[in-house]
Amino acid sequence: MLKAFGYTNTAIAVHYAMFVLAIAVVGVVMGVAVGAWAGRQWTRLYALFFRFPRLTFTLPLTIVVIAALAAAVLATVSSLGAVQRAAAVPPAEAMRPASPATYRKGVLERFRLQQSVPLTARIVVRNLERRPVRALLSVLAIALAVAIVIVGIFTVDAVHYLTDVQFNAAHRQDVTVAFKEIRSRRALHELAHLPGVLRAEPVRVVPVRLRNANLSRRIALVGLSSTARLARIVDARLRPVSLPHDGIVLNDALASALGLHRGDAVTLDVLDGARPTRNGVVCDTVTEYLGLSAYMDIDAVNRLMREGPMISGGYLQVDTSASTLLYRALKTTPGVANVTLSNVARRSFEDTLASVINTVTGMFGLFGAAIAFAVIYNNNRIAFAERARELCSLHVLGFSHGEMAQILLGEMAALTLMALPLGVAAGRALAGLVIVLFSTELARIPLVIAPATNGTALAITVVSAVLSGVAMWRHLVRLDLVSVLKAPE
After folding, report:
1. Which of 12, 80, 348, 423 could crosslink 143 through cysteines, CB 3.0-4.6 Å?
2. Is 337 in contact with 283 (CB distance < 8 Å)?
3. Could you tell me if 143 and 230 lie in one domain?
4. Residue 101 has pLDDT above 70, yes or no
5. Per the domain annotation, does 413 fall within a domain?
6. 323 phi-psi bin (left φ>0, alpha ψ -120 to 50, beta other)
7. Which residues of 415-448 are buried (b: 16+ CB within 10 A; e: fewer)?
8. Is pLDDT at 65 greater than 90 in this prediction?
9. Percent of the chain scored above 70 by pLDDT?
10. For range 467-474, the mean pLDDT
């Protein structure tokens, strides 16, 4: 009709594109508000986690402009096909009644299953077959909503796993004592006889530079007892790794940084004492998630330094009932430089983690729920607008509101059910991508996704679908048969 009154194709295209841009503008305003809130929350978490005395969130105008332009471009591109079709259709063709649809046998008819499937289910299957591209895009959008929740929450699972590895599997000591300078092995016996000490194990730490060709890293070479039970090296399955009599064990991050593998030779430049240069062999590599680490048997470290049985500290297992007496004794022990209490470090870490968990779960749960609800409700609304006349005709023929709802909402329920497993798989894939992008030499994120995380993402999506269905049920019940069924002319 607009073309019949003289409007050009360009004017028609701009007219319909403005509808999309209007929605994009509203989305940008809401997105900036939500983004500013999320940015403040993340800033607060960083300040809390790293104990910064002051950390202020700022939102540069350039970021707002880039986000707004990206939203506008994506919205326009996504609707380009529909806008082109609206602008290109001839007026005579557009104003005549729609041609009857061409029907053909569907999958149920081809396999002769139509008699064993209820009528409403047959209608749902035929509608899905009729618009496969729309169905596929709907499935992908819902799956991405599930994936966003998983990616947001899986870091909590990863941190829980790291906590378990650090405090329960690898470093199980209650107290770590560091001396001001190296001491003879007799100092370990003195530590073992302090009040409340149940077990004491030696440690020797030597600063070294590991070199492989032109690659090098400065690290602390840690010497542990081969019979250690408190501070241990564990593999990816959390099984203890025995230190070889000679040779060096590297964590995977350090081995990768130096381009080393099991059996390769490595040069050690000692940065303490007489600063000798030694050669060693990489006997094994282990998976660790924090820092760059190298380990040797403590006797091998002392042989490397051409020294006797020396230690630089000790790991203690303590009777909690006598911990106060032990701390008093350590304060008065000469030569003690530092005392680290594992339970205090763990309690502080878990208290901070609790705040992070609540914020992260709430934030990404909100994002995922908003996307899932928007996608499902929008698809239901479009289906309702397209099939209102059909639904009213069925209602006149005797179909109840419940059967009409099965037809209208059954399609979206089927798409949602198909999207759930795909969303779990996509969430794991995106989580792996996040790990690759954010892993550094200082810290790596383990790919650990608990079943509860997948369940939370699925539950959020299902609840969003149910809420969308409830909203559409209200529209269906209030449908005006007369206004819908009267001739459009």
Report:
1. 423
2. no
3. no
4. no
5. yes
6. alpha
7. bbebbbebbbebbbebbeebbeeeeeeeebbbeb
8. yes
9. 92
10. 87
Please say whether the beta carbons of 284 and 316 come within 8 A. no
Domain containing 247 equals: 197-318
- Using CA atoms, how far apart are residues 243 and 201, in angstroms rounded to an integer? 15
Based on the fold, state whether residues 117 and 234 are members of the same structural domain.
no
Strands 277-286 and 265-270: antiparallel
Provide the angle, in degrees to the nearest 10, between the axes of the packed helices 132-164 and 119-130.
90
**C-alpha torsion sign, points 413, 418, 420, 423:** negative
- DSSP annotation of 260 reads -
Say if residue 285 is in the same domain as residue 355. no
Cα gap 404→410, rounded to integer Å: 9
- Displacement of CA 9 from its chain's centroid (Å): 46
- Low-confidence winner among 11-25, 106-120, 450-464 (lowest mean pLDDT): 106-120
Name the pLDDT band for 254 (thresholds 50, 70, 90). Answer: very high
* Same domain for 280 and 204: yes
Q: Which residues, 6 or more positions from 414, have their beta carbon under 8 angstroms from its beta carbon?
A: 124, 128
In a domain, 332, yes or no: no
Q: Check pLDDT > 60 for residue 489.
A: no
Torsion of CA 379, 380, 382, 388, to 10 degrees: 160
Kindly state the tokens that stand for 187: 């100092």
Question: Would residue 325 count as lying in a domain?
Answer: no
| Domain annotation covers residue 176 | no
Q: Whole-angstrom Cα distance, residue 202 to residue 205?
A: 10
**347, 483: one domain:** yes
